[in-house]
Amino acid sequence: MLEPEVENLHTPVLLMEAMHFLSPNEGGLFIDATVGLGGHSEEILRASESTELIAIDQDAAAIAKTQKRLESFAGRTHFVHANFAKVKSIVKGITSEMPKGILADLGVSSLQFDSPTRGFSFRFDAPLDMRMNPDGDEESAADLLLRVPEEELAAIIFEYGEERNSRRIAKWIVESREQGKPIKTTKELADLVARAAGKRKNWHIHPATRTFQALRIAVNRELEDLGRFVATAVDLLQPDGRFVVISFHSLEDRIMKQELRRLAGYCQCDFRGRPDLCTCGARQVVEILTKHPVVADEIEIDVNPRSRSAKLRACRKL
Ligand SMILES: C[S@@+](CC[C@H](N)C(=O)[O-])C[C@H]1O[C@@H](n2cnc3c(N)ncnc32)[C@H](O)[C@@H]1O
Ligand SMILES: [Zn+2]
To answer: Which of 60, 70, 192, 311 would be 293's cystine partner, CB 3.0–4.6 Å?
Structure first.
Protein backbone atom coordinates (compact mmCIF):
# COMPACT_ATOMS: atom_id res chain seq x y z
CA MET A 1 0.00 0.00 0.00
CA LEU A 2 1.18 3.53 -0.78
CA GLU A 3 1.28 6.07 1.99
CA PRO A 4 -1.64 8.45 1.28
CA GLU A 5 0.75 11.41 1.33
CA VAL A 6 2.91 9.89 -1.39
CA GLU A 7 -0.07 8.68 -3.38
CA ASN A 8 -1.21 12.28 -3.71
CA LEU A 9 2.23 13.42 -4.63
CA HIS A 10 2.89 11.75 -7.94
CA THR A 11 0.72 9.89 -10.40
CA PRO A 12 2.92 8.12 -12.93
CA VAL A 13 2.22 9.21 -16.49
CA LEU A 14 1.48 6.72 -19.32
CA LEU A 15 2.17 3.89 -16.88
CA MET A 16 0.54 1.03 -18.77
CA GLU A 17 1.94 2.22 -22.08
CA ALA A 18 5.47 2.36 -20.63
CA MET A 19 5.05 -1.18 -19.23
CA HIS A 20 3.75 -2.42 -22.56
CA PHE A 21 6.97 -1.40 -24.30
CA LEU A 22 9.35 -2.33 -21.46
CA SER A 23 7.63 -5.70 -20.83
CA PRO A 24 9.26 -6.44 -17.48
CA ASN A 25 7.10 -9.49 -16.72
CA GLU A 26 9.71 -12.05 -17.61
CA GLY A 27 12.33 -10.74 -15.20
CA GLY A 28 15.78 -9.39 -15.96
CA LEU A 29 17.58 -6.14 -15.24
CA PHE A 30 15.77 -2.83 -15.70
CA ILE A 31 16.97 0.74 -15.23
CA ASP A 32 14.69 3.58 -14.17
CA ALA A 33 16.88 6.59 -14.97
CA THR A 34 14.44 9.03 -13.31
CA VAL A 35 12.90 7.14 -10.41
CA GLY A 36 11.25 10.18 -8.78
CA LEU A 37 8.60 8.84 -6.44
CA GLY A 38 8.85 5.41 -7.98
CA GLY A 39 5.49 5.01 -9.71
CA HIS A 40 6.99 3.37 -12.80
CA SER A 41 9.67 1.57 -10.78
CA GLU A 42 7.07 -0.03 -8.54
CA GLU A 43 5.19 -1.39 -11.54
CA ILE A 44 8.43 -2.77 -13.04
CA LEU A 45 9.24 -4.51 -9.76
CA ARG A 46 5.73 -5.90 -9.35
CA ALA A 47 5.71 -7.36 -12.87
CA SER A 48 7.96 -10.28 -11.90
CA GLU A 49 9.76 -11.51 -8.81
CA SER A 50 12.89 -12.04 -10.88
CA THR A 51 13.03 -8.42 -12.04
CA GLU A 52 15.96 -6.39 -10.75
CA LEU A 53 16.01 -2.63 -10.84
CA ILE A 54 18.61 0.12 -10.78
CA ALA A 55 16.81 3.31 -9.78
CA ILE A 56 18.59 6.58 -10.51
CA ASP A 57 17.65 10.15 -9.60
CA GLN A 58 19.65 13.32 -9.20
CA ASP A 59 17.36 14.43 -6.38
CA ALA A 60 18.54 13.02 -3.04
CA ALA A 61 15.14 13.74 -1.46
CA ALA A 62 13.39 11.59 -4.09
CA ILE A 63 15.88 8.77 -3.58
CA ALA A 64 15.42 8.82 0.21
CA LYS A 65 11.66 8.90 0.02
CA THR A 66 11.30 6.24 -2.66
CA GLN A 67 13.89 3.93 -1.14
CA LYS A 68 11.71 3.86 1.95
CA ARG A 69 8.48 3.49 0.01
CA LEU A 70 9.80 0.56 -2.05
CA GLU A 71 11.45 -1.09 0.95
CA SER A 72 9.67 -4.38 0.31
CA PHE A 73 11.67 -4.75 -2.94
CA ALA A 74 15.00 -3.86 -1.29
CA GLY A 75 16.63 -7.21 -2.14
CA ARG A 76 16.41 -6.54 -5.86
CA THR A 77 16.62 -2.74 -6.12
CA HIS A 78 19.71 -0.51 -6.16
CA PHE A 79 19.16 3.20 -5.61
CA VAL A 80 21.73 5.60 -7.00
CA HIS A 81 21.80 9.35 -6.41
CA ALA A 82 23.33 10.65 -9.65
CA ASN A 83 22.70 12.31 -12.95
CA PHE A 84 21.59 9.78 -15.56
CA ALA A 85 24.34 11.07 -17.84
CA LYS A 86 26.50 8.66 -15.82
CA VAL A 87 24.25 5.66 -16.51
CA LYS A 88 27.01 3.59 -18.09
CA SER A 89 29.43 3.74 -15.17
CA ILE A 90 26.55 3.35 -12.69
CA VAL A 91 25.37 0.11 -14.27
CA LYS A 92 28.88 -1.27 -14.81
CA GLY A 93 29.68 -0.51 -11.17
CA ILE A 94 26.76 -2.67 -9.99
CA THR A 95 26.50 -5.58 -12.39
CA SER A 96 27.90 -7.15 -15.54
CA GLU A 97 24.38 -8.06 -16.65
CA MET A 98 23.01 -6.15 -19.65
CA PRO A 99 19.72 -4.34 -19.05
CA LYS A 100 16.55 -5.54 -20.72
CA GLY A 101 14.90 -2.18 -20.45
CA ILE A 102 15.71 1.45 -19.66
CA LEU A 103 13.09 4.08 -18.84
CA ALA A 104 13.46 7.85 -18.61
CA ASP A 105 10.45 9.91 -17.50
CA LEU A 106 11.90 13.38 -17.95
CA GLY A 107 11.23 16.69 -16.20
CA VAL A 108 10.24 17.44 -12.63
CA SER A 109 8.32 15.30 -10.17
CA SER A 110 5.48 16.52 -8.01
CA LEU A 111 7.80 16.12 -5.05
CA GLN A 112 9.77 18.99 -6.58
CA PHE A 113 6.97 20.99 -8.18
CA ASP A 114 4.67 20.83 -5.16
CA SER A 115 7.40 21.56 -2.64
CA PRO A 116 6.75 24.80 -0.76
CA THR A 117 10.49 25.37 -0.23
CA ARG A 118 12.38 24.43 -3.39
CA GLY A 119 11.32 27.31 -5.58
CA PHE A 120 9.95 25.41 -8.60
CA SER A 121 6.52 27.00 -8.39
CA PHE A 122 5.07 30.47 -7.83
CA ARG A 123 2.27 28.85 -5.84
CA PHE A 124 4.56 29.04 -2.82
CA ASP A 125 6.74 31.97 -1.82
CA ALA A 126 10.24 30.51 -1.45
CA PRO A 127 13.85 31.25 -2.33
CA LEU A 128 14.22 31.01 -6.13
CA ASP A 129 16.25 27.81 -6.21
CA MET A 130 14.81 25.25 -8.73
CA ARG A 131 17.74 22.84 -8.59
CA MET A 132 16.74 19.19 -8.86
CA ASN A 133 20.05 18.41 -7.22
CA PRO A 134 20.71 21.06 -4.58
CA ASP A 135 23.87 19.13 -3.57
CA GLY A 136 25.45 19.52 -7.02
CA ASP A 137 27.46 22.23 -8.82
CA GLU A 138 24.57 23.93 -10.62
CA GLU A 139 23.70 27.48 -9.67
CA SER A 140 20.26 28.33 -8.34
CA ALA A 141 17.73 30.18 -10.50
CA ALA A 142 18.33 33.34 -8.40
CA ASP A 143 22.08 33.15 -9.11
CA LEU A 144 21.42 32.55 -12.79
CA LEU A 145 19.25 35.69 -12.91
CA LEU A 146 22.11 37.63 -11.28
CA ARG A 147 24.74 36.47 -13.75
CA VAL A 148 23.25 36.00 -17.22
CA PRO A 149 23.36 38.94 -19.68
CA GLU A 150 20.02 40.34 -20.84
CA GLU A 151 20.16 38.93 -24.40
CA GLU A 152 20.95 35.45 -23.17
CA LEU A 153 18.21 35.64 -20.56
CA ALA A 154 15.69 36.67 -23.22
CA ALA A 155 16.82 33.75 -25.40
CA ILE A 156 16.40 31.27 -22.51
CA ILE A 157 12.90 32.55 -21.72
CA PHE A 158 11.91 32.56 -25.39
CA GLU A 159 13.35 29.20 -26.35
CA TYR A 160 12.68 27.09 -23.25
CA GLY A 161 9.46 28.86 -22.26
CA GLU A 162 8.09 29.79 -25.70
CA GLU A 163 7.28 33.12 -24.06
CA ARG A 164 6.39 35.95 -26.46
CA ASN A 165 7.25 38.64 -23.94
CA SER A 166 10.72 37.23 -23.31
CA ARG A 167 12.66 40.39 -24.21
CA ARG A 168 10.55 42.60 -21.98
CA ILE A 169 10.75 40.17 -19.08
CA ALA A 170 14.53 39.86 -19.43
CA LYS A 171 14.85 43.66 -19.59
CA TRP A 172 12.85 44.09 -16.39
CA ILE A 173 14.85 41.42 -14.57
CA VAL A 174 18.14 43.05 -15.53
CA GLU A 175 16.86 46.53 -14.66
CA SER A 176 15.79 45.27 -11.27
CA ARG A 177 19.21 43.78 -10.49
CA GLU A 178 20.96 46.93 -11.76
CA GLN A 179 18.87 48.99 -9.34
CA GLY A 180 20.22 46.84 -6.51
CA LYS A 181 17.02 44.77 -6.25
CA PRO A 182 17.97 41.32 -7.51
CA ILE A 183 15.16 38.75 -7.73
CA LYS A 184 15.54 36.34 -4.85
CA THR A 185 12.16 34.69 -4.39
CA THR A 186 9.45 32.98 -6.44
CA LYS A 187 6.97 35.69 -5.53
CA GLU A 188 9.31 38.49 -6.61
CA LEU A 189 9.80 36.81 -9.98
CA ALA A 190 6.11 35.97 -10.48
CA ASP A 191 5.10 39.57 -9.66
CA LEU A 192 7.75 41.06 -11.94
CA VAL A 193 6.77 38.81 -14.85
CA ALA A 194 3.07 39.58 -14.37
CA ARG A 195 3.86 43.32 -14.46
CA ALA A 196 6.24 43.01 -17.43
CA ALA A 197 3.79 40.89 -19.42
CA GLY A 198 1.06 43.43 -18.82
CA LYS A 199 -2.60 42.85 -18.18
CA ARG A 200 -4.35 40.49 -20.52
CA LYS A 201 -7.90 39.26 -20.29
CA ASN A 202 -8.58 35.56 -19.97
CA TRP A 203 -5.19 34.30 -18.88
CA HIS A 204 -5.50 30.54 -19.23
CA ILE A 205 -2.33 30.08 -17.27
CA HIS A 206 -0.52 32.33 -14.81
CA PRO A 207 1.61 34.83 -16.79
CA ALA A 208 4.78 33.56 -15.09
CA THR A 209 4.25 29.87 -15.96
CA ARG A 210 6.40 29.94 -19.10
CA THR A 211 9.21 31.93 -17.49
CA PHE A 212 9.35 29.52 -14.55
CA GLN A 213 9.50 26.54 -16.92
CA ALA A 214 12.29 28.17 -18.96
CA LEU A 215 14.39 28.93 -15.89
CA ARG A 216 13.95 25.41 -14.53
CA ILE A 217 15.15 23.89 -17.80
CA ALA A 218 18.16 26.24 -17.88
CA VAL A 219 19.11 25.75 -14.21
CA ASN A 220 19.03 21.96 -14.51
CA ARG A 221 20.53 21.91 -18.04
CA GLU A 222 17.70 19.60 -18.94
CA LEU A 223 18.35 19.54 -22.68
CA GLU A 224 22.11 19.19 -22.47
CA ASP A 225 23.50 15.83 -23.48
CA LEU A 226 20.01 14.35 -23.73
CA GLY A 227 20.80 12.92 -27.17
CA ARG A 228 24.02 11.41 -25.89
CA PHE A 229 22.14 9.82 -22.98
CA VAL A 230 19.85 8.00 -25.43
CA ALA A 231 22.82 6.66 -27.41
CA THR A 232 24.55 5.52 -24.20
CA ALA A 233 21.38 3.86 -22.90
CA VAL A 234 20.80 2.01 -26.16
CA ASP A 235 24.44 0.94 -26.20
CA LEU A 236 24.02 -0.60 -22.73
CA LEU A 237 20.91 -2.62 -23.63
CA GLN A 238 20.99 -6.31 -24.45
CA PRO A 239 19.79 -7.34 -27.92
CA ASP A 240 15.98 -7.00 -28.08
CA GLY A 241 16.19 -4.67 -25.03
CA ARG A 242 13.84 -1.67 -24.90
CA PHE A 243 14.45 2.02 -24.36
CA VAL A 244 11.38 4.08 -23.38
CA VAL A 245 11.32 7.83 -22.88
CA ILE A 246 8.53 10.16 -21.79
CA SER A 247 9.01 13.87 -22.45
CA PHE A 248 6.92 16.87 -21.56
CA HIS A 249 8.35 19.64 -23.69
CA SER A 250 8.50 20.01 -27.47
CA LEU A 251 12.28 20.64 -27.44
CA GLU A 252 12.87 17.50 -25.39
CA ASP A 253 10.64 15.45 -27.66
CA ARG A 254 12.35 16.81 -30.77
CA ILE A 255 15.76 15.72 -29.44
CA MET A 256 14.34 12.27 -28.64
CA LYS A 257 12.74 11.90 -32.06
CA GLN A 258 15.92 12.94 -33.89
CA GLU A 259 18.19 10.75 -31.82
CA LEU A 260 15.97 7.70 -32.15
CA ARG A 261 15.76 8.22 -35.90
CA ARG A 262 19.53 8.56 -36.08
CA LEU A 263 19.91 5.29 -34.14
CA ALA A 264 17.39 3.71 -36.52
CA GLY A 265 19.77 4.57 -39.36
CA TYR A 266 18.17 7.72 -40.78
CA CYS A 267 20.74 10.44 -41.42
CA GLN A 268 19.89 13.65 -39.55
CA CYS A 269 22.35 15.88 -41.42
CA ASP A 270 21.30 18.81 -43.59
CA PHE A 271 22.51 17.05 -46.73
CA ARG A 272 20.35 13.95 -46.45
CA GLY A 273 20.79 11.45 -49.25
CA ARG A 274 24.52 12.20 -49.51
CA PRO A 275 26.04 9.52 -47.29
CA ASP A 276 29.50 10.83 -48.20
CA LEU A 277 28.66 14.11 -46.39
CA CYS A 278 27.06 12.54 -43.27
CA THR A 279 28.55 13.69 -39.98
CA CYS A 280 25.78 12.46 -37.61
CA GLY A 281 26.96 8.86 -37.79
CA ALA A 282 23.50 7.42 -38.45
CA ARG A 283 23.66 3.62 -38.39
CA GLN A 284 20.80 1.27 -37.65
CA VAL A 285 21.07 -0.21 -34.15
CA VAL A 286 17.40 0.04 -33.13
CA GLU A 287 13.93 -0.47 -34.47
CA ILE A 288 11.56 2.36 -33.54
CA LEU A 289 8.41 0.93 -31.91
CA THR A 290 6.39 4.16 -31.87
CA LYS A 291 5.89 5.57 -35.36
CA HIS A 292 4.09 8.47 -33.69
CA PRO A 293 4.61 9.37 -30.04
CA VAL A 294 2.12 7.78 -27.66
CA VAL A 295 0.02 10.35 -25.78
CA ALA A 296 -2.38 10.16 -22.85
CA ASP A 297 -6.07 9.58 -23.51
CA GLU A 298 -8.84 11.89 -22.25
CA ILE A 299 -9.45 9.76 -19.16
CA GLU A 300 -5.83 9.98 -18.02
CA ILE A 301 -5.70 13.72 -18.77
CA ASP A 302 -8.85 14.20 -16.69
CA VAL A 303 -7.36 12.40 -13.71
CA ASN A 304 -3.83 13.73 -14.14
CA PRO A 305 -3.61 17.03 -16.03
CA ARG A 306 0.21 16.76 -16.11
CA SER A 307 -0.16 13.95 -18.65
CA ARG A 308 -1.61 16.38 -21.21
CA SER A 309 1.79 17.25 -22.65
CA ALA A 310 3.42 13.83 -22.23
CA LYS A 311 4.86 12.06 -25.29
CA LEU A 312 6.22 8.54 -25.09
CA ARG A 313 8.68 7.10 -27.61
CA ALA A 314 10.16 3.62 -27.55
CA CYS A 315 12.65 1.56 -29.47
CA ARG A 316 14.03 -1.99 -29.52
CA LYS A 317 17.72 -2.72 -29.80
CA LEU A 318 18.56 -4.97 -32.71
C1 LIG B 1 8.80 13.13 -13.91
S2 LIG B 1 9.78 12.69 -12.54
C3 LIG B 1 9.76 10.95 -12.54
C4 LIG B 1 8.56 10.37 -11.89
C5 LIG B 1 8.58 8.86 -11.76
N6 LIG B 1 8.54 8.20 -13.03
C7 LIG B 1 7.44 8.39 -10.87
O8 LIG B 1 6.61 7.60 -11.34
O9 LIG B 1 7.36 8.81 -9.72
C10 LIG B 1 11.39 13.04 -13.09
C11 LIG B 1 12.49 12.75 -12.10
O12 LIG B 1 13.70 12.69 -12.83
C13 LIG B 1 14.73 13.31 -12.13
N14 LIG B 1 15.69 13.77 -13.13
C15 LIG B 1 15.49 14.69 -14.09
N16 LIG B 1 16.61 14.83 -14.84
C17 LIG B 1 17.52 13.96 -14.33
C18 LIG B 1 18.86 13.63 -14.66
N19 LIG B 1 19.50 14.24 -15.67
N20 LIG B 1 19.48 12.67 -13.95
C21 LIG B 1 18.84 12.04 -12.92
N22 LIG B 1 17.59 12.32 -12.55
C23 LIG B 1 16.93 13.27 -13.25
C24 LIG B 1 14.06 14.40 -11.35
O25 LIG B 1 14.81 14.71 -10.19
C26 LIG B 1 12.70 13.79 -11.02
O27 LIG B 1 12.70 13.18 -9.76
ZN1 LIG C 1 24.07 12.16 -41.09
So the answer is: 311
